[in-house]
Amino acid sequence: MNLESLIKPDSVLCNVSARSKKHCLEILSELLTRSNPDIASEEVFAKLVERERLGCTCLDKGIAFPHCRISGLTTSCAALMKLVEPVDFDSVDGEPVDLIFGLMVPEDLSVTDYSDIESLSSLLRDRTLCASLRATTNSKGLSDALLTAGITPIEKLKTA
Fold first, then answer.
1. Of 21, 47, 67, 82, which is the active-site residue?
2. DSSP state of 71
3. How many structural domains compose the chain?
């Protein structure tokens, strides 16, 4: 998986003010559709909410990984948000969330798509990466921190 092809700089947003989990998902759906203007953000929002109803997508320690399948999508795409103030995301560990990595994938998932989701989930649990993301103060820094720190762990996971 090439993280740079998965997440574009304009899909990364730092210092986001969100009122709730639902508001986070609304903002996230808009970020996810920036690179796919043919897909309505309302559709993505509805799919993200539907997925959350199946079970919380929090990874613990203040990180959420909302994801959904989208009909007509040919390649996966991602977005990243860092909140100004954490919000309650119904996480199992009870901690509010301040880092949200969103992913939309094609409706018919391939083996590669499943592998990418597992790799991203492992990457987002990396404490060093999360500390770097939390230390950033702007969107470019957030994007750079993700891409720089994310290259090595993902490549290691692919060869393991």
1. 67
2. T
3. 1
